[in-house]
Amino acid sequence: MSRTSLSRFLIEQQRKAGTLPPDLRHLIETVARACKAISHSVGKGELAGILGEAGTGNVQGEAQKKLDVIANDVLLEANEWGGNLAAMASEEMELPYSIPDGLPRGRYLMLFDPLDGSSNIDVNISVGTIFSVLECDESVSGHPTEADFLQPGTRQVAAGYTVYGPQTMLVLTFGNGVYGFTLDRENGSFVLTHSEMKIPQATGEFAINMSNMRHWEAPVQRYVGELLAGKTGPLAKDYNMRWVASMVAEVHRILVRGGVFMYPKDARDPAKPGKLRLMYEGNPMAFIVEQAGGMATNGHQRILDIQPAALHERVAVFLGSKEEVERVTAYHN
Ligand code: FDP
């Protein structure tokens, strides 16, 4: 069987109707290289002494794991000298990281969650890297600021994630379908293994942290109540539940076999619209899910249409198989 490497796939995309500019291709290759390094560290775990807390906190007041910090540094170092980016922003940094003076600055902005699902690192369960690429406005001449990143998800030119599981897989979209690549650990290259990934419209599987049930708003209470009622309830169908507590792993499962993933707004902190972050979790995952034929809303509107007001803004998330996301969104509206 002839294999298509990530590099070959990207070059062919670039040639095909010019859908992929060369500098964006180069950026994605650099991100993929960084993800291989992160995959290697995740795979070593305790052998490299990198499990456990870093002893620091991030801007959201969450304790950082050593691997959160390592993954963030790997992504910054790999991407700062490539000449494709004007600035980067990350879950682990309060402010954007502008490409230092003296290094060439490119026209893209990248946001990432270097290691999503980090509560799973120490227990050897899948974690992942999520990234979103935007264009920097041409009028920005100096160092981009937070305001330059505040673009709705519809403006993303690329998004992807790498899941570090039994296999390391990179899943990508440039707005014309979703493609999955599996890391061949023997020769170190990502190989196209999942072409044109499509989420089934209907599903019998849902994912939500049920321990928060008492804090949810009425539409989510109603919807999950109906899922739990199964065949004898209004949906007349039995549903199964999964909760990995790693968004990347949940989205990956949904891309492969369908399902609905929810992290709703809840009453624990009424000031927050949800737990997940819009710009480096909600938007890239919504872009991927829509490109695979699924749907992603905050309960009221399409996630990709939200105008962000802050870099680390939070969002409620309902994504996956269209029939179910439509239903829970209709209950909100
Ligand atoms: P984590 O806090 O471990 O980084 O990004 C937030 C996230 O993980 C998601 O990956 C995951 O889906 C969710 O939070 C898990 O939340 P719970 O702790 O409520 O299970």
Mean pLDDT: 95
The small-molecule ligands in this entry are: 2,6-di-O-phosphono-beta-D-fructofuranose
Low-confidence stretches: none
Q: H/E order of the elements?
A: HHEEHEEEEHEEEEEHEHEEHEEEH
Radius of gyration: 19 Å
Number of strands: 17
How large a portion of the residues is in β-strands, by DSSP E?
Answer: 15-25%
Q: Quote the distance from N terminus to C terminus.
A: 50 Å
Count of helices? Answer: 8
Largest sheet: 8 strands, mixed
What is the general shape?
globular
The amount of helix comes to 25-40%
Strand order across the largest sheet: 4-3-5-6-7-8-9-10
Structural class given helices, strands, pairing? alpha+beta
How is this structure best described in words?
Helix content is 30%, strand content 24%. The protein is built from eight helices and 17 strands. It has helices spanning 6-15, 22-44, 66-80, 146-149, 218-229, 247-257, 278-291, 322-332, and strands at 53-57, 63-65, 85-90, 97-98, 108-116, 127-135, 158-164, 168-173, 178-184, 189-194, 205-207, 240-241, 260-263, 276-277, 295-297, 314-315, 317-320. With 333 residues, the protein is α+β, with helices and mostly antiparallel strands. Helix 2 packs antiparallel against helix 3 and helix 5 (218-229) packs across helix 8 (322-332). Strand 7 (158-164) and strand 8 form a beta hairpin. The longest helix is centred in the N-terminal third of the chain and has 23 residues, at 22-44. It has an eight-stranded mixed beta sheet with strand order 4-3-5-6-7-8-9-10, with helices on both faces. A five-stranded mixed beta sheet has the order 12-11-13-17-15, with helices on both faces. The structure holds 2,6-di-O-phosphono-beta-D-fructofuranose. 2,6-di-O-phosphono-beta-D-fructofuranose (FDP) is lined by residues 116-119, 209, 245-247, 275-276, 281.
